[in-house]
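note to self: dont lose this again. the chain is below, predicted strucutre after it. 220 aa total, dont forget to put it in the shared folder this time
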Amino acid sequence: MSFPFQRDSPQLQRERMVRTQLADRGIRDLRVLDAMRKVPRHEFVPESFRQDAYEDHPLPIGEGQTISQPYIVAAMLKHLALQANERILEIGTGSGYVTALLSLLCAEVYSVERHAQLAASAESTLHRLEYRNVKIRVGDGGQGWAEYAPFDAILVSAATPEMPPALFAQLRDGGRMIVPVGPPSIQELQLIYKVSGRPEVKILEGCRFVPLVEGAVDSG
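---
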């Protein structure tokens, strides 16, 4: 007699994701691991991809965008070393998954998304799941959100040819920004500190992100 296949619960899948994809690969920041145990990644992907929500690869979310693989998200958060009292700017809200993680790690999250449909969907999901310390707007990510600057940290979830000067200007002195830099074929994750108004760049690891598109915004 055969029985239908049953998947583990989302909670068990998250626990396995944290153990095998993150902790076993060197992610040791306990706050990051705890946040990734708590945030239901499956709620931030389209229904047709939910069975793959906790696998270690990107997934499409519409508008030519993706939700990044769990490991690279955790690595970016680890390198930023966020504190509970900090204010962060996120460039590329996407599905809202990283936004939710940031809301558990920081006091205030400001997120810019150029695609109105993605911004609306992310805002709806975040509100439904009761992530309250988040503000989202539709806009050109390369220009940041000057109204709320300066920020303690900036996380850019799309690749740029070089460090975005408008974003660097919105960092407080002593703040840091993590950003994928380079063309689609060869990108590197950079951690950029603002020290006495000047950038100090640390090269972290290779990566692959969709490009940051600047200029006219999709207003829906």
